[in-house]
User: What shape does this take?
Amino acid sequence: MPATLLIKGGRIVDPANGVDATGDLLIEGDRIVKVGGTIAANGAEVVKADGQIVFPGFVDLHVHLRSPGREEKETVATGTRAAAKGGFTTICAMANTDPPADNRTVVEYLLAEARRSAAVTVLPIGAVTKGLAGESLAEIGELKAAGVVALSDDGHSIMNAQLMRRALEYAKMFELPIISHAEDTTLSAGGLMHEGLASIKQGVQGIPSSAEAVMVARDILLAEHAGARLHIAHASAKETIDLLRAAKQRGVAVTAEATPHHLALTDEALRQYESNCKMNPPLRAAADQAALHAALRDGTIDCVATDHAPHTQAEKEVEMDTAPFGVIGLETALGVLMTVLVKPGGLTLTQLAAAMSWRPAQVIRIPRGTLSPGAAADVTLVDPGKTWTVTVDAFESKSSNSPFIGRTLHGAVTEVFLGGRRLVHNGEVLAL
Amino acid sequence: MTTAAWTHKDLLGLEELSAEELTLLLEQARAFKEVSLRPIKKVPALRGRTVVLFFLEPSTRTRTSFELAAKRLSADILNIQASSTSLTKGETILDTVRNIEAMKVDILVIRHSVSGIPLKVAKTAAASVVNAGDGSHEHPTQGLVDLYTMLEKKGTIAGLNVSIVGDIAHSRVARSNLWGLTKLGARVTLCGPPTLVPAGIEQLGVKVTYSLKEAIRDADVLMLLRLQLERQTQNLLPSIREYAKLFGVDREKLAWGKPDLIVMHPGPVNRGVELAPDVADGPQSVIYDQVTNGVAVRMAVLYLVSGGRPAKAPAAKPVPAHPVTA
Assistant: This one.
């Protein structure tokens, strides 16, 4: 008989089934077998969840694991431990490694490395173009066979519209969404932060919102024409939200994500030229932030994805123009969203779970992100009353380039189960 | 007479200063200008202190002005310029500064092509940091020089109509002037082609016009900015020729303005581009007064950031403001 585990008395939040109620959840082996009400299970290990929230394990569509090639920033082991600590049970690894995941060998390497050292489920994303160069299509059929769940040149923009069109058409054959890093690089070139009042004051070249929005508009039109699935990565501008809303209304198969940092911060965070607030797309203005909040509430933004982008301290501690773009996010995502959105009443727990678990799983069509009986027992427990401060020393990630260092957050991941196995206990990642 | 006290370790920009603090600096500068007019121009205010002039971008006038200011205050001076450092792009400047600091210097005067570098240094350095121009961010001592010169020529800043013409987007001088002038109650108009005037800058309390005539018409002060010639290759301008035609000031265009309009330029002037030689050298130009005032203003800045007590004017027989440390 498989081991049984009873999560008792928690607030179960499962948007896929419209559930938000206090009750028990029973796991047998690697599956959830019973949910809701009071469950009696003799001999089961009991996890007391009074006052805690029971979420489907979080799914992150956008993680830079940096392996292979940039292991000084992150490894599969450290990146997935960071994911576990943040309550994520499934993460998608972006293709911009060195070498990039534009061929089956690199994808297979990543999967082998994941089998050996990953704390959570790692799903590879394949490159759209060879060498991420934006010049010719990668062998998408072979990438699919190797196990990729989506395609993206993230970190690079596909500037050639004809190539993007062909990619969308071709990927349709394999039912793979293309994740667009929407950036017109002729508009963003040289920019370091959002083009707005803050960039004017600081005398820093800006990246206008239009650099993102013109590309979102292009990709929506191309996906619509091709009848293909498009996912917009790290939406940041209010103009992008307007385009997404209109596209969804007319039935285009487009989904989108926003990052915790774009939801939590604005370009004012850069007033001290803080390189841990330098990312691409940049932190934008308050009006953009408000538009992202509204879009997350009404579903125009489908999910939250961290765009976890580790960089070493040495790389970041240089002149602002030479510091690389990107921040880490796996370990702070839940706390940031609870603090910035849920606690002030800007987002319900059901909306949060939809954005963190259910809808990202839908984007890549994996049977995760729900607590339905029969589903994989990927479960994350959160203590909404726990207050904690983000510190450099506590990161499981190999890097510490977080814009939230020093911030006090309300709400913490306490327990995580992956396929019924306990992965995190009292907020600490257990040894593999 | 102001009652404000100087409380800042550093001078990074005029944005973070209050009107009282700006006034204090200007009064201190006036006191030092009197010193500059004496046959013996040296006071012992910074004797025993070390001032490092850390210039990572070419500069003649600002560096010379700082050097002269520090010398007239009796400080010891160390010059470090881009060509004489091991600094290359990507290497951390904080490391270099930590090394210089380890030699126990008192004031770091920093010029850098990247916005925000003096602030980054100031956050970790024990020494005082004076921003001598960072990227397109601020050039606070130039801003103070300009304020001082306007005050000297017009008697007041409040209520003055000041028009700044040129490449506002890339100008640290424009930003420092914008902050200083608006804080002291001047009416500021920015003028240039829309490609060189950042959209939305009106939110900082200034007027924007694309017409040079409008900028000149009611102005008491007309400040021209240096046009970097590479703006042409960045498609910000069709040609220098067209820029000069639309925004360059010659005697004819100067006649659009009031007879007592004064013309300023932070230098170096592109003669024939933003300013015709007959205007640059004409009776309404105060460009060389700006240069003269630069020394007194920088003396005031070095004196105050190093902890000097604001003084109306150093006594005829000046006494050191600090206990002299060997």
Q: What stands out?
A: Chain A touches chain B through 18 residues (CB under 8 Å). Chain A has a mean pLDDT of 97. Chain A has 13 helices and 19 strands. The CA atoms of residues 308 and 329 of chain A lie 5 Å apart.
